[in-house]
Specification:
about 150 residues; 5-stranded antiparallel beta sheet
Length: about 150
């Protein structure tokens, strides 16, 4: 899949095994990172939301969240994992309805005492299946899934 590296030159880097090429053909989409920031010390990426605007409406919107709760607990031993998992589930389900996405993103921006933050939207050109691109973005920006022992 040929795609535009979404954060080139912004301090983030794509994995070296991901092919990145500037392209002009494909679906022009946007994504935001959902971050958990329990204090002023920093944050950890916990989710990716990919969406496609068509004027004032959204044609596509999906989210993917980390399943690696141990990584969150390493970052914040006091994290309320049940609340975070419930929030992730709620956002994923609301975002599947594209008409609810803008309202859900605004709710996340305005609530949660800055513990849950959204990055600025970044443009990306998707030449293939958006669901596949969401998986790629998740593999780049989210903590790796826990290994089964």
């Amino acid at each position: 899949m040929v795609r535009l590296c979404p954060l080139a030159g912004s301090g983030f880097s794509c994995n070296s095994d991901v092919e990145t090429t500037n392209v002009t053909e494909g679906r022009k989409m946007e994504f935001v990172l959902v971050r958990y920031a329990p204090d002023l010390q920093g944050c950890i990426n916990v989710g990716v939301v990919l969406f496609e605007r068509a004027g004032d409406t959204l044609n596509f919107a999906q989210a993917r969240f980390t399943k690696n709760m141990q990584r969150i607990l390493t970052w914040d031993p006091d994290a309320d994992i049940e609340v975070l998992q419930s929030l992730f589930f709620h956002i994923e389900n609301k975002i599947e309805n594209a008409s609810e996405t803008e309202r859900m993103l605004e709710l996340v921006r305005s609530e949660f005492s800055n513990a849950i933050q959204l990055s600025d939207a970044k443009g990306i050109v998707v030449s293939g299946n958006p669901e596949d691109e969401l998986l790629i973005l998740a593999s780049i920006y989210l903590p790796p899934e826990p290994t089964q022992a």
